[in-house]
Amino acid sequence: MNLKEEIKTIEPELIALRRDFHMYPELGFEEFRTQEKIIEYLESLGGMFRIREMAKTGVVADLAGVEPGPVVMLRADIDALPVTEETGLSYQSVNEGKMHACGHDGHIAMMLGAAKILSGYRDRLKGHLKFVFQPNEEGAGAEPMIEEGVMENPRVDCAIGAHIWSPLPAGRVGFGPGPVMALSECFELTVKGRQGHTANPHLAVDPIAVAAGIITATQSIQAREINPLQASAVVFGRINAGSTYNIIPSEVSLAGTIRYLFQVPEGEEEPRDRFERIVKNTCSAFRADYELRFLFRQEMVVSDPELTAKALPGTLETVGGPENVEKVVTMIGEDFSEFGKTVPTLFYFIGSGNPEKGCSYPHHHPRFDIDESSLAVGTEMHVRGALALLDMDE
Ligand SMILES: [Zn+2]
Ligand SMILES: [Zn+2]
User: pLDDT averaged over the chain?
Assistant: First the structure.
């Protein structure tokens, strides 16, 4: 039986796994049932893996080969979102207010499928495979795993990550070298004025007017300061101020993200510094004060050119040819980038969109759903990717 046929035989199992995780979604660092199910499944494969719990609700499963070789890590994220599901599926979430609306249920199923198939290679495995099930991707779950030693014992040489992708039709994959997911910085900003009566604005300092100026002025970072051929975006996601129509409030609270998809050239001002310069000078121009806090930063996710080249033949084999491969680049961030700080990474997108099956809603939408044929594709991508990075034939 060749690899494609072998994966075909476990497809019903992949779908059943995904539906089970879908029905019982858990938020970041609360994935206790999910963790238990992952361990249960891996143990059912016959004691092949050294299994460890990590970062509270994460799992690391090692598959040691018989000959020395590279240590390849494969990572799946396992958390759900605080979204109330509206799909009406028979296996819809039973955990109120929680939903696998980003496809991480599928990520777990694909990774378990890959672990099962790859465990069959154990007798001739040259190197070491590390299957990592990471909690809390939507927050920050990679960092605690690194702190608890996921990259060590044995030391990881390279890492594979993937995301199910609804904008991409099922059967296609997003694959290619270079930056694929953006660097993102989350900020909170308080603009401080002086409270007063809206009839006497000259006796107050109106922070709403200042905040409006900041929102407009910071758009010129992309429009006038950064090369138009390079992508960046400053977007405010929250703004709160005031209590009623005739009071100028004392302050405005804002939050948002700064995202970009390029390496800042040596000696050039970073986008966050450009942002703060504009905030500072706008406030000073209008007699206001401010407090700016950068909450956390996710680095870019980059597909290493060498790893990409190694994995390309297997990718073409998986999807049947170059016509089903495209380069996907997104301004969305991913904390898989944490692993990329110390080792080269490979990241790809598994198309899951299919309007005919109702799978056309965006990620994080209450009606988000995936074409489940993507599960077999993702599993095959993982298996072929891992073998390629181990320099092994199928
Ligand atoms: Zn998400
Ligand atoms: Zn996600």
Answer: 96
167 CA from centroid of ligand 1 (Å): 13
Question: Model-level pTM?
Answer: 0.90
Q: Which amino acid is at 259?
A: R
Measured in Å, residue 252 CA sits from the centre of ligand 2 at: 31
CA–centroid distance, 103 to ligand 2, in Å, is 6
Q: What is the pLDDT of residues 208-258, one digit of tens each?
A: 999 999 999 999 999 999 999 999 999 999 999 999 999 999 999 999 999
- For residue 254, the surrounding DSSP H or E stretch is strand 251-260
Q: At what angle do helices 104-119 and 373-389 cross, to 10 degrees?
A: 50
Side-chain-facing half-sphere of 193: CA atoms under 13 Å: 26
DSSP alpha helix (H) spans, the chain: 3-9, 11-23, 32-44, 104-119, 142-147, 207-218, 220, 271-285, 305-319, 373-389
How far apart are the CA of 163 and the centre of ligand 2, in A? Answer: 7
Ligand 2 centre and the CA of 140: distance in Å? 12
Ligand 2 midpoint to CA 369 (Å)? 13
Nearest CA-CA partner of 113 in 74, 147, 145: 74
Task: Please give the distance, rounded to the nearest whole angstrom, from the Cα atom of residue 243 to the centre of ligand 2.
Answer: 36
In angstroms, the CA 348 to CA 141 distance is 20
Going from the N-terminus, what domains does the chain have, and what CATH number goes with each? 3-181+300-389 (3.40.630.10), 183-298 (3.30.70.360)
CA of 129 to the centre of ligand 2 (A): 23
Residue 1, pLDDT > 80, answer no
Residue 138 Cα to ligand 1 midpoint, Å, equals 6
Share of the chain above pLDDT 70, in %: 100
